[in-house]
Amino acid sequence: MASTTKTSPVIVITGTPGTGKSTHAELLVQESPVPLRHIDVSEFVKEKELYENFDAEWDSYIVDEDKLIDELEPLASAGGVILDWHACEPWPERWVDLVVVLRCDHTKLWERLEERNYSLKKITENNQAEIMEVIAQEARDSYEPEIVVELKSESTEDLESNVARIVEWIHAWKKDHPDGEQS
Which domain of life is it from (predicted)? Predict the structure, then answer.
């Protein structure tokens, strides 16, 4: 594959379901000093049929990660995308400039998932994952520590502060990469 110049970063926004990934990504697209495309990976998987099958018990698709990576490769190589998903380890390190792990108090998370009409089994599993820091640890294990940031996501104030912080990071990235970045 020929190398390309990436003129905008690739940002991963991850966290337990209900932590505000999509809301953060949508606001970041609006506030960013560079054009960014929000990719809700769950929706992307459904639209492109990048799954092996549907698990009725968990009410979710079993993702074919190889197909997903192949489909996202040209988009990530070009830069300017936000990958919004409950997992971050599938993304090759070469793609990712920043990993934002959203964290939420488990009681608040429980309420959010109840509002979404998640089953008790899914609410319990997701709350246990948040308490045990499953996704935060996945990010720490998958990427260099300097590109992983954990942010509290419990209120509108947190949302606004987090987006402002990421916008500042984008400004710094652009300053550090005035001619883009080879990928």
Answer: Eukaryota
- Report residue 59's pLDDT band, with 50, 70 and 90 as the boundaries: confident
Range from 129-133, 137-141, 143-147, 177-181 carrying the lowest mean pLDDT:
177-181
β-strands 98-103, 148-152: how paired?
parallel
User: What residues does each domain of the chain span?
Assistant: 11-164
Alpha helices in the chain (DSSP H): 21-31, 41-48, 65-78, 106-115, 120-131, 134-142, 156-176
E strand or H helix at 38: strand 37-40
Alpha carbon distance, N-terminus to C-terminus of the chain: 10
CATH fold of 11-164, please?
Rossmann fold (3.40.50)
* Contact assessment for residue 87 and residue 138, using Cβ atoms and an 8 Å cutoff: yes
pLDDT at 3: 60
Give 72-91 as a 3 state SS string. HHHHHHHCCEEEEECCCCCC
If one counts every other C-beta atom within 10 angstroms of the C-beta of residue 51, the result is 17
Query: What span, in angstroms and rounded, lies between the C-alpha atoms of 86 and 183?
Result: 25
